[in-house]
Write a structure and sequence with these properties.
It is built from five helices and no strands. By secondary structure, it is an all-alpha fold. It has one domain. The longest helix has 14 residues. It is globular and about 30 Å long.
Length: about 90
């Protein structure tokens, strides 16, 4: 796992900020079941210093509905996830 200062300081307010940014970038319904989108949601849950399931549970989908990256260029969720991992 990549670790940065921003991940260590990931509190509820920062999670809300990231989720708002994520929602603003999504343009296709299919993005909501993409592994890039759901991977970021899961990473936020793992890294948060607080219980944020009330914020993230609305994004959860059954594994059967999840799909691999569709290769969108750019991938809105993938870009935000990469930025997050880089510590932006």
């Amino acid at each position: 796992m990549v670790c940065s200062k921003s991940m260590a300081d990931l509190n509820r307010n920062k999670v809300l900020e990231i989720l708002k940014e994520l929602e603003s970038r999504i343009s296709k319904q299919e993005c909501l079941t993409c592994e890039c989108f759901l991977g970021l949601i899961t990473q936020l849950e793992l890294d948060s210093s607080e219980d944020i399931l009330d914020l993230t549970s609305k994004y959860k989908v059954p594994n059967a509905k999840m799909h691999g990256c569709m290769g969108c260029k750019p991938c809105p969720s993938g870009e935000l996830f990469a930025d997050y991992l880089r510590g932006k």
